[in-house]
TrEMBL record:
Catalysis: reaction(s): oxaloacetate + acetyl-CoA + H2O = citrate + CoA + H(+)
Pathway stated in the Swiss-Prot or TrEMBL entry: Carbohydrate metabolism; tricarboxylic acid cycle; isocitrate from oxaloacetate: step 1/2
Species of origin: Trebonia kvetii
Protein name: Citrate synthase
Annotated GO CC locations: cytoplasm
Any one GO molecular function term: citrate synthase activity
Length: 393
């Protein structure tokens, strides 16, 4: 009860106020997936193993992980008709709306398997989404650069397959850099879930109407697209390049932020929940330090980002507002060094977040207490009044 309206348990659950999946302590900077600290999972686990953990609640046995991986590997192909779907978009289309539309379109090929209350259907949809979203993402990128779409290579692991679909060419063999594949796998793990964030809440709200899993994920992708949410990793790169092009004076930019110039924020900083350093940002920064030395030794944007962080962390404007780097502050630098264009950064976030969205959808749809999301409101408009003829207005 908020003193104005009483929230019924069903609404509270659907509006995503209770879950067993992820725990965050924003003041202490703690993040755990199903009780396991993100630092341990990032170091010791893999993205598919973490995906299994988020969706099923326990770390898989060797047999379970092997079966899960094999099922996903065998579903990476798209229906040939769906490949033509990409021809309908302009070359310079942003890949996020393309991906969201493609996920919706994907569901039209499985119309007999969309019942959200049929467990085998939901499991098959889970496998199909985890397997095909990277293929769809790679195809969105290939169309934007006018290159041919490759077929998945099932001899490669999940991330290697995605990298080859993005950067491979039919005319020559693609050489996987194991360090890049390992780093991208870990970045996907860091993004895999984050409690009731904007896009996950969107998935739960849409799913509460008994919309199928594909429809709910498609909606989540568009919520993630916003620059205040997943779009921030691309906005950080734009901000750093803008500072560099203006002469590299980070203090001048920080002053523009503090003066609250319209549209000027310290992108990649601040968080609705973390009022301390985002534990994921700490891990990403260590990866950036290590990987960029190898991949982009002359990329001065990391140096600029580190200077910007240093200034902000010691400036009372940010300290008093408890603004710290979040997961998006350093990820874009790594994605750029891997060869991804800025437009693909939020698509990479979506691939990482997919298992978390799926886990939350399944938790919500299986909970008997769930009701359709229907937020109530406090009406603040005009009191009752009579219609006014147009000549009297
Ligand atoms: C993600 O929810 C999740 O978990 C999201 C996410 C996930 O994994 O799903 O963690 C991923 O979305 C991370 C956030 C990425 N977005 C950005 O980096 C964009 C820049 N950040 C901000 O826009 C902002 O910090 C938000 C949107 C993230 C949070 O906005 P809030 O809730 O308004 O922030 P706040 O209440 O803490 O703000 C307090 C003050 C305000 O100033 P005053 O009105 O008190 O003077 O801090 C200011 C805000 O204006 N502020 C910023 C700022 N963030 C907050 N000022 C400058 N730059 C910023 N980045």
């Amino acid at each position: 009860t908020t003193g104005m309206v009483t929230l019924d348990p069903g609404f509270v659950n659907t509006a995503a106020c209770s879950s067993e999946i992820t725990y965050i302590d924003g003041d202490a900077g703690i993040l755990r997936y199903r009780g396991y600290p993100i630092e341990q999972l990032a170091e010791k686990s893999s993205f598919l193993e973490v995906s299994y953990l988020l969706i099923h609640g326990e770390l898989p046995t060797d047999t379970q992980l092997r079966e899960f991986t094999q099922q996903i590997t065998r579903h990476t192909l798209l229906d040939e008709d769906l490949k033509r779907f990409f021809d309908g978009f302009p070359r310079d289309a942003h890949p996020m709306p393309v991906l969201s539309s493609a996920v919706s379109a994907l569901s039209t090929f499985y119309q007999d398997n969309l019942n959200p209350f049929d467990e085998p259907n939901v499991h098959l949809s889970t496998i199909r989404l985890l397997a095909k979203v990277p293929t769809l993402a790679a195809y969105a990128y290939k169309k934007s650069v006018g290159q041919p779409l490759l077929y998945p290579d099932n001899s490669l692991n999940y991330v290697e397959n995605f990298l080859r679909l993005c950067f491979g060419l039919p005319a020559e063999p693609y050489e996987i850099d194991p360090e890049v594949a390992k780093a991208l796998d870990m970045l996907f793990t860091l993004h895999a879930d984050h409690e009731q964030n904007c896009s996950t809440s969107t998935v739960r709200v849409v799913g509460s109407s008994e919309a199928n899993l594909f429809a709910s994920i498609s909606a989540g992708i568009m919520a993630l697209f916003g620059p205040l949410h997943g779009g921030a990793n691309a906005a950080v790169l734009d901000m750093l390049e803008d500072i560099r092009d203006q002469g590299g004076d980070v203090n001048a930019y920080v002053n523009r932020v503090k003066n609250k110039e319209p549209g000027v924020k310290l992108m990649g900083f601040g968080h609705r929940v973390y009022k301390n350093y985002d534990p994921r940002a700490r891990i990403v920064k260590a990866t950036a330090d290590q990987l960029l030395t190898k991949l982009a030794p002359n990329d001065h944007l990391l140096e600029l980002a580190t200077q910007l962080e240093e200034v902000a962390l010691h400036d009372d404007y940010f300290i008093s507002r408890k603004l710290y780097p979040n997961v998006d502050f350093y990820t874009g630098l790594i994605y750029r060094a891997m060869g991804f264009p800025t437009k693909m950064f939020t698509v990479l976030f979506a691939i990482g977040r997919l298992p978390g969205w799926i886990a939350h959808y399944r938790e919500m749809i299986h909970d008997p207490a769930t009701k359709i999301a229907r937020p109530r409101q406090v009406y603040t408009g005009p009191a009752e009044r009579d219609f006014l003829e147009i000549e009297k207005r």
